[in-house]
Amino acid sequence: MQDRSKWISVAVFATLLASLCGVNLFTPDRTFSETENRVLADAPKLSAKTLLSGEFTGAIDEYVSDQFFLRDRWMALLNGTKRALGDRELNGVYLGKDGYYLQNTDLSDRATFDANLAAVRGCFDRLSERFDAKRLSFLLVPTAVSVLRDRLPACAPVPPEDDCIAAAYDALEGYCTIDLRESLRAHADEPIYFKTDHHWTAQGAFLGYTAFCAAQGLPAPDISDYTVETVATDFRGSLYSKAPFDAAAYDTLSLYLPRKAQNVTYRSPDRRFAGCYDREKLEHKDKYLVFLGENASDAVLQTDAGTGRRLLIFKDSYANCFVPFLTTHYDAVHLIDLRYFRGSLDDYLEKNKITDLLVLYNIANFAQDGSLSLLDTLAQP
Predict the structure, then answer these.
(1) Which of 32, 220, 242, 333 is the most buried (most CB within 10 A)?
(2) Measured between alpha carbons, how far is residue 207 from residues 32, 122, 191, 204, 320 in Å?
(3) 85-96, pLDDT tens digit by residue?
(4) What are phi and psi of 277, to 5 degrees?
């Protein structure tokens, strides 16, 4: 009887496995995972070279994993089970209190951070003959894991962001540095960071904008000058994509719209639209793209501010929800992403009559992005 039960169990398991394999064979491949927000692997091509080198074996493993039937559902079930069993870190993401996903930021290797800082200093020093030092600005945005440290799971380490930010601002003494740590921590109980995405929210960016205005001597902003429009209540962002599970929170995404009418046009090599928001992106999984759309090598927001000032920002995606607040102060806000830009900074400054320059990065990106080393080179004639 025992032998019979054993063989029945084996037969059931074999039937289930064969069924899944059959379903996989006849299910069309997907090119993109909305849940993980990434391109999925294609079927690899078999050749003597790839087979002998072992490349084919690795590629076929990746392909089968990416194209497995109901992959997203299996991942959500697995992650939900791990969370229920007490796991509080999945794929480099802490599962924090109040539904927060918090990115585990490694700042132990300061080599790239120090090189990037030296490049910024070199760029500012070269441009100081052209610009007043006050108009050369630097803003490092702390991550949520530093500001919302009370949401971290027990015993999770806090990265040394305070030390890095302090060192950066000391190294750039004489130029305009904007320290947001105190301001952001004073509002830590408010939704200044998304729960499921690594970016700050428009509310958090408004705090950054307020500090920027104070540092630049611009009129202090008043929250009553804006209408807050909620455009999504079902946003799950980049950190959720690393560790999806069904019970995860949803984020609310809001835009700050100035009550005073203003003409603004966004233009990049591939995109053009009126205003600061690409509302078509609200139909996508990554709804954060509503802020200026896809990253571009260079872009500009033309305004009718009539101030005679033109700002150039070297930036990462943290700048995208910060930039809309600046359009009342500058006739143009130019944006350069150094990962893609290969032009001459000197030519760009001359051609676009730039009067002000800002480097704005999230500290985690600043510590890892090797393209920032180009700043010093770009500043040379």
Answers:
(1) 333
(2) 35, 28, 12, 5, 14
(3) 455 667 788 888
(4) -125, 130
CA pair distance 303, 243, nearest whole angstrom: 40
Choose among 296, 352, 19, 315: nearest CA to 140. Answer: 315
Q: Determine contact, residues 176/133, Cβ cutoff 8 Å.
A: yes
Query: The tokens 């909620």 sit on which residue?
Result: 230
Q: Is 174 left (phi over 0), alpha (psi -120 to 50) or beta?
A: left
Q: Which two tokens stand for residue 7?
A: 């063989």
Give residue-wise pLDDT tens across range 182-230. Answer: 999 999 999 999 999 999 999 999 999 999 999 999 999 999 999 999 9
Q: Which helix (H) or strand (E) holds 303?
A: strand 298-303
Tokens of 288: 């954060």
Question: For residues 284 and 235, is the Cβ–Cβ distance under 8 A?
Answer: no
- Asked if 275 and 264 count as a contact pair (C-beta separation under 8 A), the reply is yes
Which amino acid, one-letter code, is at 207? L
3-class secondary-structure state, position 240: helix
Instruction: Tell me how far apart the alpha carbons of residues 223 and 254 are, in angstroms, rounded to a whole number.
Output: 14
Return the bridge partners of 39, or none. 32
Q: Rounded to whole angstroms, what are the CA distances from 231 to 198, 206, 252, 254?
A: 19, 17, 8, 6
Total residue count of the chain as it appears in this document = 381
Rounded to two decimals, the pTM is 0.81
Rg (C-alpha) for the chain, rounded Å, is: 24
Query: What is the tally of helices (H) and strands (E) in the chain?
Result: 13, 15
DSSP-assigned beta bridge partners for residue 200 = 193
Q: How far apart are CA 199 and CA 241, in angstroms?
A: 14
Distance CA(62)–CA(77), nearest Å, equals 20
Angstrom distances, CA of residue 31 to CA of 22, 73, 143, 313, 366: 20, 17, 31, 34, 31
pLDDT range class, residue 12, cuts 50, 70, 90: very low
Encoded tokens for 228: 């807050």
Quick one: which of 312, 277, 269, 313 has its CA closest to 293?
277
Which structure tokens are listed for 119? Answer: 């490049």
Please give the Cα distance from 206 to 258 (Å, whole number).
Answer: 12
Would you state the structure tokens that stand for residue 256, as one six-digit string? 């700050």
Give the other-Cβ count within 10 Å of 149's Cβ. Answer: 17
